[in-house]
Protein backbone atom coordinates (compact mmCIF):
# COMPACT_ATOMS: atom_id res chain seq x y z
CA UNK A 1 0.00 0.00 0.00
CA UNK A 2 2.79 2.41 0.92
CA UNK A 3 4.54 1.74 -2.41
CA UNK A 4 1.32 2.39 -4.33
CA UNK A 5 0.71 5.57 -2.32
CA UNK A 6 4.20 6.95 -3.04
CA UNK A 7 3.92 5.98 -6.70
CA UNK A 8 0.68 7.94 -6.90
CA UNK A 9 2.36 10.98 -5.30
CA UNK A 10 5.20 10.83 -7.83
CA UNK A 11 2.75 10.69 -10.74
CA UNK A 12 0.79 13.67 -9.36
CA UNK A 13 4.01 15.65 -8.84
CA UNK A 14 5.25 15.00 -12.37
CA UNK A 15 1.84 15.96 -13.79
CA UNK A 16 1.88 19.21 -11.77
CA UNK A 17 5.36 20.13 -13.02
CA UNK A 18 4.39 19.47 -16.63
CA UNK A 19 1.23 21.52 -16.24
CA UNK A 20 3.10 24.42 -14.65
CA UNK A 21 5.74 24.42 -17.36
CA UNK A 22 3.07 24.46 -20.03
CA UNK A 23 1.29 27.53 -18.66
CA UNK A 24 1.60 30.84 -20.47
CA UNK A 25 1.37 34.27 -18.91
CA UNK A 26 -2.11 35.24 -17.87
CA UNK A 27 -3.64 38.64 -17.31
CA UNK A 28 -5.51 39.69 -14.21
CA UNK A 29 -8.73 38.78 -16.01
CA UNK A 30 -7.63 35.21 -16.38
CA UNK A 31 -7.15 35.28 -20.15
CA UNK A 32 -4.15 33.24 -21.27
CA UNK A 33 -1.68 35.35 -23.26
CA UNK A 34 1.82 35.21 -24.61
CA UNK A 35 4.06 38.26 -24.78
CA UNK A 36 6.10 39.84 -27.54
CA UNK A 37 9.40 41.27 -26.33
CA UNK A 38 11.12 44.29 -27.91
CA UNK A 39 14.66 45.44 -27.15
CA UNK A 40 15.45 49.09 -27.92
CA UNK A 41 19.09 50.16 -28.26
CA UNK A 42 19.81 53.89 -27.93
CA UNK A 43 22.53 56.32 -26.87
CA UNK A 44 21.10 57.18 -23.46
CA UNK A 45 24.41 58.67 -22.32
CA UNK A 46 27.32 60.33 -24.13
CA UNK A 47 27.56 62.63 -27.13
CA UNK A 48 24.30 61.45 -28.71
CA UNK A 49 22.34 61.27 -25.45
CA UNK A 50 19.72 63.76 -26.62
CA UNK A 51 19.04 61.67 -29.73
CA UNK A 52 18.64 58.51 -27.68
CA UNK A 53 16.27 60.28 -25.31
CA UNK A 54 14.16 61.50 -28.21
CA UNK A 55 13.96 58.01 -29.69
CA UNK A 56 13.03 56.50 -26.33
CA UNK A 57 10.23 59.01 -25.70
CA UNK A 58 8.96 58.61 -29.25
CA UNK A 59 8.96 54.83 -29.02
CA UNK A 60 7.05 54.83 -25.74
CA UNK A 61 4.48 57.24 -27.16
CA UNK A 62 4.28 55.19 -30.35
CA UNK A 63 3.45 52.05 -28.40
CA UNK A 64 0.75 53.95 -26.53
CA UNK A 65 -0.69 55.37 -29.74
CA UNK A 66 -0.59 52.17 -31.79
CA UNK A 67 -2.13 50.00 -29.05
CA UNK A 68 -4.58 52.64 -27.81
CA UNK A 69 -2.87 52.49 -24.43
CA UNK A 70 -3.34 48.74 -23.90
CA UNK A 71 0.25 47.64 -24.64
CA UNK A 72 -1.27 44.61 -26.32
CA UNK A 73 -1.63 43.50 -29.92
CA UNK A 74 -3.51 40.51 -31.26
CA UNK A 75 -4.08 39.31 -27.70
CA UNK A 76 -0.40 39.45 -26.74
CA UNK A 77 1.33 41.67 -24.22
CA UNK A 78 4.12 43.91 -25.46
CA UNK A 79 7.21 44.14 -23.25
CA UNK A 80 9.84 46.78 -24.01
CA UNK A 81 13.42 46.82 -22.73
CA UNK A 82 15.70 49.84 -23.24
CA UNK A 83 19.49 49.50 -23.27
CA UNK A 84 22.15 52.21 -23.42
CA UNK A 85 24.77 51.65 -26.15
CA UNK A 86 26.91 54.49 -24.76
CA UNK A 87 27.57 55.31 -28.45
CA UNK A 88 30.15 52.53 -28.48
CA UNK A 89 29.81 49.73 -31.09
CA UNK A 90 31.33 47.13 -28.75
CA UNK A 91 28.87 48.03 -26.00
CA UNK A 92 26.01 48.07 -28.52
CA UNK A 93 26.83 44.52 -29.61
CA UNK A 94 27.11 43.31 -26.00
CA UNK A 95 23.78 44.88 -25.07
CA UNK A 96 22.14 43.39 -28.16
CA UNK A 97 23.46 39.92 -27.30
CA UNK A 98 22.09 40.28 -23.79
CA UNK A 99 18.67 41.25 -25.15
CA UNK A 100 18.68 38.32 -27.56
CA UNK A 101 20.03 35.65 -25.23
CA UNK A 102 18.85 36.73 -21.78
CA UNK A 103 15.63 38.60 -22.50
CA UNK A 104 14.78 36.46 -25.56
CA UNK A 105 13.49 39.51 -27.43
CA UNK A 106 11.48 39.08 -30.62
CA UNK A 107 12.50 42.47 -32.07
CA UNK A 108 15.49 44.79 -31.88
CA UNK A 109 15.19 48.53 -32.46
CA UNK A 110 17.96 51.13 -32.83
CA UNK A 111 20.31 52.77 -32.70
CA UNK A 112 21.27 56.44 -32.39
CA UNK A 113 24.68 55.89 -34.01
CA UNK A 114 25.37 54.28 -37.38
CA UNK A 115 28.51 52.69 -35.95
CA UNK A 116 26.52 51.09 -33.14
CA UNK A 117 23.86 49.91 -35.56
CA UNK A 118 26.28 48.32 -38.01
CA UNK A 119 27.79 46.37 -35.09
CA UNK A 120 24.38 44.90 -34.30
CA UNK A 121 22.65 44.26 -37.64
CA UNK A 122 24.51 40.97 -38.31
CA UNK A 123 23.08 39.64 -35.03
CA UNK A 124 19.55 40.14 -36.34
CA UNK A 125 20.33 37.74 -39.16
CA UNK A 126 22.23 35.31 -36.93
CA UNK A 127 19.39 35.09 -34.40
CA UNK A 128 16.64 35.46 -37.02
CA UNK A 129 15.03 38.47 -35.37
CA UNK A 130 13.59 41.55 -37.06
CA UNK A 131 15.54 44.74 -36.35
CA UNK A 132 13.87 48.08 -36.99
CA UNK A 133 16.64 50.62 -37.56
CA UNK A 134 15.96 54.06 -36.09
CA UNK A 135 17.44 56.68 -36.42
CA UNK A 136 20.88 55.65 -37.78
CA UNK A 137 21.33 56.93 -41.35
CA UNK A 138 24.38 55.23 -42.90
CA UNK A 139 23.51 54.05 -46.42
CA UNK A 140 25.35 50.79 -45.84
CA UNK A 141 22.75 49.63 -43.30
CA UNK A 142 20.27 49.00 -46.11
CA UNK A 143 23.01 48.91 -48.74
CA UNK A 144 26.26 46.96 -48.65
CA UNK A 145 25.57 45.54 -45.16
CA UNK A 146 21.91 44.74 -45.85
CA UNK A 147 20.28 41.57 -44.63
CA UNK A 148 16.64 40.47 -44.90
CA UNK A 149 15.96 40.98 -41.18
CA UNK A 150 16.60 44.73 -41.29
CA UNK A 151 13.78 47.26 -41.80
CA UNK A 152 14.54 50.96 -41.47
CA UNK A 153 12.04 53.64 -40.41
CA UNK A 154 14.85 56.20 -40.16
CA UNK A 155 15.79 57.93 -43.38
CA UNK A 156 19.18 57.18 -44.92
CA UNK A 157 22.01 59.48 -46.01
CA UNK A 158 20.94 59.42 -49.63
CA UNK A 159 17.48 60.68 -48.72
CA UNK A 160 19.09 63.57 -46.85
CA UNK A 161 21.41 64.15 -49.80
CA UNK A 162 18.59 64.52 -52.31
CA UNK A 163 16.98 67.18 -50.13
CA UNK A 164 20.25 68.95 -49.37
CA UNK A 165 21.42 69.01 -52.98
CA UNK A 166 18.08 70.26 -54.28
CA UNK A 167 18.45 73.36 -52.12
CA UNK A 168 21.77 74.61 -53.55
CA UNK A 169 23.20 72.49 -56.38
CA UNK A 170 23.10 73.65 -60.00
CA UNK A 171 25.54 73.93 -62.92
CA UNK A 172 28.57 76.07 -62.17
CA UNK A 173 28.19 76.07 -58.37
CA UNK A 174 31.28 75.09 -56.35
CA UNK A 175 30.63 73.32 -53.05
CA UNK A 176 32.88 72.30 -50.16
CA UNK A 177 31.69 69.91 -47.46
CA UNK A 178 32.35 69.40 -43.75
CA UNK A 179 31.35 66.27 -41.84
CA UNK A 180 32.39 64.04 -38.90
CA UNK A 181 34.95 61.38 -39.68
CA UNK A 182 32.91 58.18 -39.27
CA UNK A 183 30.34 56.25 -41.29
CA UNK A 184 27.52 58.74 -40.75
CA UNK A 185 29.58 61.66 -42.04
CA UNK A 186 31.48 59.97 -44.84
CA UNK A 187 28.47 58.17 -46.27
CA UNK A 188 26.37 61.32 -45.92
CA UNK A 189 28.87 63.31 -47.95
CA UNK A 190 29.27 60.54 -50.53
CA UNK A 191 25.52 60.56 -51.10
CA UNK A 192 25.34 64.37 -51.20
CA UNK A 193 28.24 64.54 -53.64
CA UNK A 194 26.52 62.13 -56.02
CA UNK A 195 23.23 64.03 -55.88
CA UNK A 196 24.89 67.45 -56.23
CA UNK A 197 27.07 66.40 -59.17
CA UNK A 198 24.03 64.97 -60.94
CA UNK A 199 22.53 68.48 -60.69
CA UNK A 200 25.66 69.99 -62.24
CA UNK A 201 27.53 71.28 -59.17
CA UNK A 202 31.25 70.70 -58.49
CA UNK A 203 32.50 69.39 -55.14
CA UNK A 204 35.82 71.21 -54.68
CA UNK A 205 36.78 69.91 -51.22
CA UNK A 206 35.70 67.32 -48.65
CA UNK A 207 36.72 68.02 -45.05
CA UNK A 208 36.29 65.50 -42.20
CA UNK A 209 36.70 66.29 -38.49
CA UNK A 210 36.91 64.05 -35.44
CA UNK A 211 33.33 63.36 -34.30
CA UNK A 212 34.25 64.40 -30.72
CA UNK A 213 36.11 67.56 -31.77
CA UNK A 214 35.46 70.92 -30.13
CA UNK A 215 37.94 72.95 -32.19
CA UNK A 216 37.23 73.12 -35.93
CA UNK A 217 39.61 75.97 -36.78
CA UNK A 218 41.97 73.96 -38.98
CA UNK A 219 39.09 72.19 -40.75
CA UNK A 220 37.26 75.42 -41.53
CA UNK A 221 40.42 77.14 -42.74
CA UNK A 222 40.97 74.39 -45.31
CA UNK A 223 37.45 75.05 -46.62
CA UNK A 224 38.05 78.81 -46.79
CA UNK A 225 41.25 78.24 -48.76
CA UNK A 226 39.28 76.43 -51.49
CA UNK A 227 36.97 79.47 -52.02
CA UNK A 228 33.73 77.54 -52.68
CA UNK A 229 30.36 79.17 -53.31
CA UNK A 230 28.78 77.02 -50.59
CA UNK A 231 29.86 75.07 -47.54
CA UNK A 232 27.50 72.14 -47.04
CA UNK A 233 27.70 70.71 -43.51
CA UNK A 234 26.61 67.29 -42.30
CA UNK A 235 26.77 67.00 -38.52
CA UNK A 236 25.21 65.20 -35.55
CA UNK A 237 25.70 65.65 -31.83
CA UNK A 238 26.08 68.48 -29.34
CA UNK A 239 29.53 69.67 -30.49
CA UNK A 240 28.44 71.59 -33.60
CA UNK A 241 30.83 73.72 -35.70
CA UNK A 242 28.43 76.67 -36.10
CA UNK A 243 30.03 79.02 -33.58
CA UNK A 244 33.46 78.68 -35.14
CA UNK A 245 32.05 79.03 -38.65
CA UNK A 246 30.60 82.32 -37.44
CA UNK A 247 33.77 83.37 -35.56
CA UNK A 248 35.88 82.74 -38.66
CA UNK A 249 33.47 84.91 -40.70
CA UNK A 250 32.96 82.25 -43.36
CA UNK A 251 29.85 83.90 -44.79
CA UNK A 252 31.53 87.32 -44.87
CA UNK A 253 34.13 85.73 -47.15
CA UNK A 254 31.39 85.04 -49.68
CA UNK A 255 30.82 81.39 -48.75
CA UNK A 256 27.15 80.57 -48.16
CA UNK A 257 26.27 77.91 -45.60
CA UNK A 258 23.77 75.12 -46.19
CA UNK A 259 22.86 72.17 -44.01
CA UNK A 260 20.13 70.01 -42.63
CA UNK A 261 18.37 71.71 -39.72
CA UNK A 262 18.88 69.41 -36.74
CA UNK A 263 17.32 69.23 -33.27
CA UNK A 264 16.01 72.13 -31.22
CA UNK A 265 19.13 72.27 -29.05
CA UNK A 266 21.21 73.29 -32.07
CA UNK A 267 18.89 76.09 -33.24
CA UNK A 268 20.35 78.80 -30.94
CA UNK A 269 23.78 78.13 -32.44
CA UNK A 270 22.33 78.71 -35.92
CA UNK A 271 21.38 82.35 -35.34
CA UNK A 272 24.12 83.45 -37.78
CA UNK A 273 22.47 81.26 -40.45
CA UNK A 274 19.09 83.06 -40.59
CA UNK A 275 17.90 83.03 -44.21
CA UNK A 276 19.76 79.83 -45.02
CA UNK A 277 18.07 77.43 -47.43
CA UNK A 278 18.27 73.79 -46.43
CA UNK A 279 16.14 70.86 -45.34
CA UNK A 280 15.04 69.06 -42.22
CA UNK A 281 13.89 65.60 -41.22
CA UNK A 282 11.25 66.98 -38.84
CA UNK A 283 10.14 70.03 -36.93
CA UNK A 284 6.92 69.77 -34.98
CA UNK A 285 5.08 72.54 -36.87
CA UNK A 286 5.80 71.18 -40.36
CA UNK A 287 3.68 68.00 -40.81
CA UNK A 288 -0.07 68.45 -41.16
CA UNK A 289 -1.70 65.16 -40.12
CA UNK A 290 -3.59 63.61 -37.24
CA UNK A 291 -0.75 61.38 -36.00
CA UNK A 292 1.56 64.36 -35.62
CA UNK A 293 -1.18 66.36 -33.88
CA UNK A 294 -1.56 63.49 -31.38
CA UNK A 295 2.21 63.32 -30.86
CA UNK A 296 2.60 67.05 -30.23
CA UNK A 297 -0.33 67.20 -27.81
CA UNK A 298 0.60 64.04 -25.90
CA UNK A 299 4.30 65.01 -25.73
CA UNK A 300 3.40 68.40 -24.24
CA UNK A 301 1.11 66.69 -21.76
CA UNK A 302 3.70 64.16 -20.60
CA UNK A 303 6.86 66.27 -20.69
CA UNK A 304 6.00 69.59 -19.09
CA UNK A 305 4.94 71.38 -22.24
CA UNK A 306 8.00 70.35 -24.28
CA UNK A 307 7.43 69.65 -27.98
CA UNK A 308 8.69 66.55 -29.80
CA UNK A 309 12.15 66.98 -31.29
CA UNK A 310 14.01 65.78 -34.37
CA UNK A 311 14.04 62.03 -33.67
CA UNK A 312 10.91 61.72 -31.51
CA UNK A 313 8.65 60.96 -34.51
CA UNK A 314 11.14 58.35 -35.69
CA UNK A 315 10.91 56.46 -32.40
CA UNK A 316 7.14 56.66 -32.69
CA UNK A 317 7.23 55.42 -36.29
CA UNK A 318 9.33 52.40 -35.31
CA UNK A 319 6.81 51.44 -32.63
CA UNK A 320 3.86 51.90 -35.00
CA UNK A 321 5.59 49.75 -37.64
CA UNK A 322 6.07 46.88 -35.19
CA UNK A 323 2.49 46.99 -33.94
CA UNK A 324 1.05 47.21 -37.45
CA UNK A 325 3.17 44.26 -38.57
CA UNK A 326 2.00 42.18 -35.60
CA UNK A 327 -1.59 43.02 -36.42
CA UNK A 328 -1.04 41.64 -39.92
CA UNK A 329 0.53 38.42 -38.60
CA UNK A 330 -2.12 38.14 -35.86
CA UNK A 331 0.59 38.32 -33.22
CA UNK A 332 3.04 35.89 -34.83
CA UNK A 333 6.52 37.29 -34.12
CA UNK A 334 8.45 34.75 -36.20
CA UNK A 335 10.74 36.57 -38.60
CA UNK A 336 9.65 34.76 -41.76
CA UNK A 337 6.03 35.78 -41.17
CA UNK A 338 7.00 39.36 -40.35
CA UNK A 339 9.23 39.76 -43.41
CA UNK A 340 6.37 38.58 -45.59
CA UNK A 341 3.97 41.26 -44.33
CA UNK A 342 6.49 44.08 -43.77
CA UNK A 343 7.87 44.11 -47.31
CA UNK A 344 5.79 46.76 -49.03
CA UNK A 345 3.85 47.57 -45.85
CA UNK A 346 2.53 51.14 -45.55
CA UNK A 347 1.71 52.70 -42.19
CA UNK A 348 0.75 56.13 -40.87
CA UNK A 349 3.32 58.13 -38.89
CA UNK A 350 3.81 61.70 -37.64
CA UNK A 351 5.52 62.38 -40.98
CA UNK A 352 2.64 60.97 -43.02
CA UNK A 353 2.59 57.63 -44.80
CA UNK A 354 5.75 55.54 -44.75
CA UNK A 355 6.26 52.45 -46.91
CA UNK A 356 8.93 49.78 -46.52
CA UNK A 357 10.38 49.36 -50.02
CA UNK A 358 10.45 45.61 -50.74
CA UNK A 359 13.85 45.79 -52.46
CA UNK A 360 15.87 46.99 -49.46
CA UNK A 361 13.40 47.52 -46.58
CA UNK A 362 14.10 51.26 -46.50
CA UNK A 363 11.08 53.31 -45.44
CA UNK A 364 10.21 55.86 -48.11
CA UNK A 365 9.11 59.03 -46.34
CA UNK A 366 8.54 62.78 -46.46
CA UNK A 367 11.34 65.29 -45.85
CA UNK A 368 10.98 69.06 -45.71
CA UNK A 369 12.61 71.83 -47.73
CA UNK A 370 12.89 74.82 -45.38
CA UNK A 371 14.36 78.25 -44.81
CA UNK A 372 15.73 79.27 -41.44
CA UNK A 373 13.80 82.29 -40.17
CA UNK A 374 13.59 84.44 -37.06
CA UNK A 375 10.72 83.60 -34.69
CA UNK A 376 8.48 85.81 -32.58
CA UNK A 377 7.97 82.90 -30.16
CA UNK A 378 11.60 81.93 -29.60
CA UNK A 379 14.99 83.56 -29.18
CA UNK A 380 16.39 81.32 -31.89
CA UNK A 381 15.56 80.79 -35.59
CA UNK A 382 13.17 78.05 -36.67
CA UNK A 383 12.62 76.16 -39.94
CA UNK A 384 9.76 77.42 -42.08
CA UNK A 385 8.28 75.14 -44.70
CA UNK A 386 9.10 75.83 -48.33
CA UNK A 387 7.56 72.57 -49.50
CA UNK A 388 7.22 68.93 -48.58
CA UNK A 389 9.59 66.60 -50.40
CA UNK A 390 7.45 63.55 -51.14
CA UNK A 391 8.48 59.93 -50.44
CA UNK A 392 8.81 59.32 -54.19
CA UNK A 393 10.89 62.48 -54.65
CA UNK A 394 13.35 61.59 -51.89
CA UNK A 395 13.52 57.85 -52.65
CA UNK A 396 17.21 56.87 -52.49
CA UNK A 397 18.91 54.53 -54.93
CA UNK A 398 18.75 50.83 -54.14
CA UNK A 399 22.23 49.93 -52.93
CA UNK A 400 22.01 46.33 -51.70
CA UNK A 401 22.51 44.53 -54.99
TrEMBL record:
The keyword Signal applies. Residues 35-373 form the Leucine-binding protein domain. InterPro entries: BCAA_transport (IPR051010), Leu-bd (IPR028081), Peripla_BP_I (IPR028082). Residues 1-20 form the signal peptide. Keywords: Signal. It holds the Pfam family Peripla_BP_6. This is ABC transporter permease. The keyword Lipid metabolism does not apply. Belongs to the leucine-binding protein family. Gene3D superfamilies: 3.40.50.2300.
Amino acid sequence: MKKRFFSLLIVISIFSIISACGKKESTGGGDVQESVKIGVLASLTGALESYGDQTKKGFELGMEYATDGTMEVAGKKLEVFFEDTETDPKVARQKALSLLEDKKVDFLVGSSSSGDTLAVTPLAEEYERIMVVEPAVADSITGSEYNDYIFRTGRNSSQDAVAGAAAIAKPGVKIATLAPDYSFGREGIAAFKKAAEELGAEIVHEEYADQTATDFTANIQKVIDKKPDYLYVVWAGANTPWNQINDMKVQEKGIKISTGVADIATLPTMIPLVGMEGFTVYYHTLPDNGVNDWLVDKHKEKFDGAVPDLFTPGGMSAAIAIVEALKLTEGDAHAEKLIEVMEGMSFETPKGTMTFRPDDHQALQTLYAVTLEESDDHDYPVPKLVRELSPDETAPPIMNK
